[in-house]
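To: structure desk
From: M.T.
Subject: fold request, one chain
Message: Could you run this one when you get a chance? Sequence is below, nothing fancy, just the single chain.
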Amino acid sequence: MQNKPRIFKIVQIFHSINLIALILMITSGLQIYNANPVFGGRAGWHFPPIFLLGGWLAGGRHWHFAAMTLFSVNLLLYGIYIVFTRRWKIRFFSAKDLGALQKSKNIKRTNYAWHRLIYTIIIPVLVLSIFTGIGMYKPAQFAWIVSCFGDWQSLRIVHFLAVPTFIVFAIVHWRLALKVGGSSLVDSMFFR
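Reply: Done. Structure tokens follow.
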């Protein structure tokens, strides 16, 4: 029984670091966005200063790269942890979950299946976000990444769309966790 609290502590650390890094990346990314908005160019809509981190373009970039490094390392370590502990067997969407979504009358089981589906879908989005970020950071050195998206502006749009995708994911992830385990489950992922 002593193994379970230790696992929760490790998961709490990963979740907390992800949350901090995502908030830092989003707010610093919006600071970068304001320097030359993706939609509308320099005359486009700007985010209010309350949502920004960095104070100016270079400051936003520094915060963004620092948070991206923290996020990427944390994601890599979490991936290693999931593989090493074999938690991937219970974390990701499977054929059983597909069956539950199609046939199950058990609402809790259906919610688990939805939770695993959402959890699985976010993985390629995370990888795409890192991939497009590298292409934006060094477009000359990684011209092949830019060409995968057609041009640099398209790459920026795909990278920028990661923000609302992560926000929607976080809300859905939180709501499903509430349905599956209540507020005690959500609290345990960060606080207990």
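Reply (cont.): The longest helix spans residues 3-35. Let me know if you need anything else for the meeting.
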